[in-house]
Structures are given as structure tokens and as C-alpha cells.
Amino acid sequence: MSAPIRIVEVAELYGSDFYVYHGATLIRVCPSLGMAREVAAGIDR
């Protein structure tokens, strides 16, 4: 069983960043939800 993939939105003064986690490991910080979803989709390939 693989670790869960999570996208966490972090509100900043200028907008939001989206943190993509694979289990407890931060994979990437993305400027948009769409980009974070694309990164998350490619993790388990």
C-alpha cells in the first residue's frame, strides 16, 4: 500500500500556495491548485 497523497492550501498575503505531500514527505510547492493536482497525479506512476 502506498502512502496517501495530500494537497494542502496555505494562505499567504499575496494569495495561496499549494503543498503536495506524499505521506509525510513534501514533494513540491505549487502556485496553483491545477498545478498541484498535476504533480499529485504523476506521483504514483
Describe the structure.
It is a single chain. The mean pLDDT is 93. Strands 1-2-3 form a three-stranded antiparallel sheet, covered by helices on one side. It is globular and about 35 Å long. It has one helix at 33-43; strands at residues 5-12, 15-22, 25-30. The protein has one helix and three strands. A hairpin with a 2-residue loop joins strand 1 and strand 2 (15-22). With 45 residues, the protein is an alpha+beta fold. The protein starts with a strand and ends with a helix.
Q: Helicity, in percent?
A: 10-25%
- The largest beta-sheet arranges its strands as 1-2-3
Strand % is over 45%
What gap, in angstroms, lies between the N and C termini? 14 Å
Q: Let me know the largest β-sheet.
A: 3 strands, antiparallel
The number of strands is 3
- Mean model confidence by pLDDT: 93
Radius of gyration (Å): 11 Å
What low-confidence regions span 5 or more consecutive residues with pLDDT below 50?
Answer: none
Structural class computed from helices and strand pairing: alpha+beta
- The number of distinct helices, counting runs of at least 4 residues, comes to 1
Morphology call: globular
Please trace the helix and strand order, writing H or E for each element.
EEEH
